[in-house]
Amino acid sequence: MERAVASAIHAHWTLYLFEGIVLVILGAAAIVVPVIATLAFTLVIGWLFLISGGVGLVTTFWMRNAPGFWWALLSAVIAIAAGIILIRWPINGSLSLTLVLIAFFVVEGIATLMYAFDHRAQLTGRWGWMLSSGIVDLILAGIIFAGLPESATWALGLLVGINMLFGGVAMIGMALAARNLA
Length: 182
Prior knowledge:
Blueprint: H1 2-11, H2 13-32, H3 34-62, H4 69-88, H5 90-119, H6 127-146, H7 155-179
Helix pairs in contact: 1-7, 2-3, 2-7, 3-4, 3-5, 3-7, 4-5, 5-6
């Protein structure tokens, strides 16, 4: 199985390289202009909600005799409403998404800290890395929260840009390694 995967990656290494380069360029652009990246990200999320809510609404009515009809209908309507709000008022949507991001970092940070403390006996030399990761999550949440509402204009774009940049570098590395496989 591993050989088949390696062979498939080797056969298409140039596509992975191209994707990596595109991700690096887009990630760097998002880091340089995080306000525009935040706005674009908010609009994309808005369209995703709107489209998924529309599809959910159609399928809910198509299968209206299925159990949970009212819950499915409510879910579809909420997704459509969220999409409309994010598309119509993307700046306010950016603030809402930033609050969700802060909550994620807080929960992720606390969970990672607890995980580190639970595993410090088994991972004697390495639990500190998990502890550090949890602390970084909490610091990020604090920085973004302390900068509200201004941080809502740049935080999402910057973090998406960093993610794309590192993902692109990883993809380039994988493509170049796959190129040398025989």
